Amino acid sequence: HVQLVESGGDLVQPGGSLRLSCAASGVTYVTNCVGWFRQVPGKEREGVAVICVGDGTKYYADSVKGRFTLSRDTRKSTFDLQMNALKPEDTAMYYCAVGRYIADYAQPLEYAYWGQGTQVTVS
After folding, report:
1. Confidence band for 80, pLDDT divided at 50, 70 and 90
2. How far apart are CA 31 and CA 82, in angstroms?
3. DSSP per-residue string spanning 42-104
């Protein structure tokens, strides 16, 4: 049974940094991928960064490449998103998600399990 709990969202000034954490249980299959998505009201949910458990494959949206880094802490069972050089357009609710046999990393519909989200505001 997969459970996901996000934390780390906050209000930060432009240019600042935040570290989001996704505490994940039940994510054991090598075919699992864990992704961070974000959404603002009135817009579609956007894939930000993904890491696959089996081979460590990573995906980053073009809008965050070079600024965001997704890593896995096997000791703490967390998937952490380090966000640097934050911009106002990064403001959103950030969600952690898990799926198996992902073909399109950025497609929310391919992910079966979701956390409740954590709010990031850059202002």
Report:
1. very high
2. 24
3. TS--EEEEEEETTT--EEE-TTTTTTEEEEEETTTTEEEEEE-S--GGG-EEEEEEEEES-SS
